[in-house]
Amino acid sequence: MSYEGWILLTGSLVGISCSIIGCFLILRKMAMLADAISHTVLLGIVAAFLISQSLDGAAMFIGALCAGLLTAFFVQLLSAKGVQSDAAIGVVFTFLFAVGVILLTLYGGNVHLDVNHALMGEITFVPLDIVQIGGVTLGPKAVWMLGFALVVNLLLIGLFYKEFKITSFDPQMAMSLGIPVLLIHYLQMGMLSMTTVASFDSVGAILVVAMLIVPPAAAYLLTEKLSHMLVISGLIGVLSAVSGYYAAVLMNISIAGAMASAAGVIFSLVFLFSPSQGYVIKLLVRRKSSQQLQEKRS
C-alpha cells in the first residue's frame, strides 16, 4: 500500500473505532467523559512507561486501560456522592491529566512522549513505524493496534448488543431485568480507553475526541435506530478522515486538525439539513404549516 494509503487507512480506522463506541456515550449523555478519558490516558501511558521502561504497545494498552477505568470510577464515585456529573468529570479530568503532565515533565524528558505530541499527534509518521516479523513487513504498528481495537469493539458490541442498548436508553429498566448496569458501564469505559490509546500516538487526543463525539452526534440527528446509528457514525468517521486528509494536503495544514474540522463541517450540514431534525428543514415545515393555516383562515 502507498504512503498516502496507510495514512487514509489509519484515519479511517480511528473514525470507525471511535465513532461506534461514541454512539453509546452520546445516548447516555456522557459525551464529555470521552474528552476526559482521552486526556487522562496520558497518566496511564506515563505510568506504564515508568514501570516498564518501555514504549511497548502492550504496556501502553494496560496503562491507558487502567487510567480510563480509574477516571470512570472516580467520576461515578463523585456522582454517587451528590456531585453533579459535569462537575465530577471536570474535577477528575483536570486532576488526573495534570498529574500525567507533571510525571511526564519530571521523568519522561528523554523519550518521544510530550504533551504537544499527545494532544495533536502526527499521523504523517504512521507509515514509518512498521511491524516486521522474520524480515517480512506487515505494515504500520498503528494500523495493527487500531485494527485490534476495532475488532474487539465489534465483538463486544455483537456479544452484548442487547445489554448495551437497554442500558443506554433505560438504565432503570436494565436494572429491573437483572442486567449488571455498572459492569456494562465499566466494560464500555474499558473499550473507550483501549480505543483511545490505540489512536493516541498516531493522531492525538484532539482528533480522538472529535471522532468520539462528532460523528455519533451527527448520526443521532439522522436516525432513531441504534443499529443504523452505529453504521452511519462509522461512515461519517471515514468520510471525515478522507476529506480532512485531502483538505490538509491541499492547504498544507495539520492532517489531524483538518480531519477534526471536516467532522465539524459534516455535523453542521447534518444539523442544518437533516430530513427529520435539520434546523432549516424545521423552519421550512413551520413556514409551510403557517401558510396553510393562514389559507384556511382566509
UniProtKB/TrEMBL annotation:
GO terms for biological process: response to zinc ion; transmembrane transport. Signal peptide: none annotated. It is a multi-pass membrane protein. One of its GO terms (cellular component) is ATP-binding cassette (ABC) transporter complex. It comes from the Bacteria. Pfam families: ABC-3. This is Iron chelate uptake ABC transporter family permease subunit. It comes from Metabacillus lacus. Belongs to the ABC-3 integral membrane protein family. InterPro entries: ABC_BtuC-like, ABC_TroCD.
